[in-house]
Amino acid sequence: MPLSKIAGIGFYVPANVFTNDDMKQYMDTSDEWIQERTGIKERRYADRLGETTTTMGVKAATIAIERAGITPQDIDFIIFATLSPDYYFPGCGVLLQRAMKMKEIGALDVRNQCSGFVYALSVADQFIKTGMYKNILVVGSEKHSFGLDFSTRGRNVSVIFGDGAGAVVLQPTTKSGQGILSTHLHSDGSSAEILAMYNPGTHANHWVNEKVGSFDEAAIGQQFISHAMIDEAQLFPNMDGPAVFKKAIEKFPEVINEALQKNGLTTNDLKLLIPHQANLRIAQFVQHRMKLRDDQVYNNIQQYGNTTAASIPIALCEAWEKGLVKEGDLICLAAFGSGFTWASALLHW
Ligand code: UT7
Asked: Would the pTM of this model clear 0.70, i.e. be above it?
């Protein structure tokens, strides 16, 4: 049975740089607070009217497809991971299929937030291994900037997130020492509301009443969208940051070790860990806990913020472009986020 290899990789970030000082125009925050708590110096914001999650995905995909030495018409399946889709439905996969003039192939959207790319990669890996598809495009893209609360009320969430896209083309390989060795997917829905955007949705106050008692009930869930939701800022993401942080530093090492152990490998074998860029402090904690050297962990959250489903392919692509990832190198991708969901993938480049 063949394994899957990353045959091409690309990323795109918008030109517009938004610094921590720029944030201060809108909310009570400081460069010092943001850097100290998250490591973030700046992030990119999409052109408000000129760019969407899909158009950024198309840019990253175009590079990945070209680097794989194929054309968009050779792609036989699309998997698009995002939490900030152009439309509530249909998904970004079909919009990308249309924009790139691809054949009438399958297009699947994955809604697993920060671990969305690793989940998407895992699904693609299964289709390649079974021989069902030969050229799968996996995209992670986010336009967070359109949907954040830029008042002081939303500052714990809004300073973290940035826009961007990353993409890979997955193909079968029979070359020894190359390809995805294993993927590991997990979830724990008991904390679903800790990092969530409740509205618009069909929850009709199920779950939310019990889990998020502090909100005005009239403002949430009685209708799909209401004026009260807007007035009470219930159309923005909510996050209990410290609770997410605590769980993340537990689950990252667990899921990385799971991948290594499954393949009889250790951290000594690891060339590079690409953690989801949630918070530099989380990545540093994981590095310390796993006794990894600085050169074994790649971070770029300082420049791009947390780009959710896009963060891993952006970081992997940037590391590869810098020559930090070479043929045969053992790479681990690991993510944790809303759901909670967490995941890892171990591969030989
Ligand atoms: O990829 C998605 C998964 N998400 C994550 O992984 C996020 C994980 N969590 C975190 O990264 C951190 O919890 C945050 C960066 C979100 C927050 O850092 P923290 O050190 O946990 O701060 P905190 O939430 O405990 O807040 C400490 C203080 C509060 O003020 P008081 O109550 O102590 O007076 C906040 O109101 O910092 C305040 N604060 C801010 N101050 C300035 C919160 N956000 C800001 C801000 N600027 N942007």
From this structure: yes
Strand blocks (E) in the chain: 3-12, 16-19, 42-45, 77-81, 106-110, 136-142, 164-173, 179-187, 195-196, 238-239, 272-275, 330-337, 341-348
Distances (CA, A) of 183 to 4, 314, 329: 11, 19, 17
Instruction: Give the whole-angstrom CA distance, residue 189 versus residue 58.
Output: 32
Query: Would the CB of 114 count as within 6 Å of ligand 1?
Result: yes
List of domains in the chain: 3-173 (3.40.47.10), 179-191+238-348 (3.40.47.10)
Give residue 241 CA to ligand 1 midpoint distance, Å. 6
Contact 151, 27 (CB under 8 A): yes
For the ranges 95-99, 184-188, 208-212, the lowest mean pLDDT is seen at: 208-212
- Determine if ligand 1 sits within 6 Å of the CB of residue 240: no
